[in-house]
User: Fold these one by one.
Assistant:
Number 1:
Amino acid sequence: MSDQPVNLVSVNTAPERAKKVIGTVIENVKDKYTIVHAGNSATIDGVKPLLLSIQPPPGILFCASMWTPEEQAEIQQIARETIPGIRTHAIPTGLQVQVGPDGVIKYLMERIDDIMKV
């Protein structure tokens, strides 16, 4: 377990939902990881300025499921170009609609160990 908190940003057009879902995941893994939800961008254009505004730089970016696969790829590319070495994860398109917030939390909980690996 690292003592250094990892800043996580989300790209989600529903910031309150992002905060709730990610907050629940962070709470569930707090015994293993120190993750801080450092910000959310509701637009693709806002991703780079958000990433650059956070110190220390975010270590993880989550793309929400309302973006198309093409948009998710663009968001992740922006993140990697802005912060080399950032870990990115795209929640499958449409997952929120199919399974709701609890399903998204379950999905992320099943993958958080892989996402956190450096």
Number 2:
Amino acid sequence: MTETHATIPPGAPVFPPGRYGRRREPGRRRPVLLVLVVAVLLALLGLMATKLYSQYGDPTYNAEVITYTEVTDAQIVIQFRVRVPAGGSATCLLRARSHDGAEVGHEEVTVTARPGEQQVTTEHRLATTARPFIGEVLRCRPAA
């Protein structure tokens, strides 16, 4: 006849007492350690994202077209404003497009702010191969 224990649920393994050491209670975990590891990981990811954005983000070189005038079959004059770091300079890519959307002219222009100023307003005469419909500033980046 086999020995049955009233305190052991059916299907649970039966180990001889004292042979395998003390068994851990099920469900007992360390949630504080897990929360701490997750918090440190999130802080490191936030610091890395901030560093990469400050290094590769381009929030300071914003350009806007004020107006474009003197539209002829061979040119357009684009007046634009660029926000740069104080006293800095930027290289901007200007583009002219015809009425059907084809590019009829483009050129890179370097602009420099006066010492202490953060905005440069300038105009540039852009030569075109056909009559332009619109003048644009595609992008500005730090001057090389």
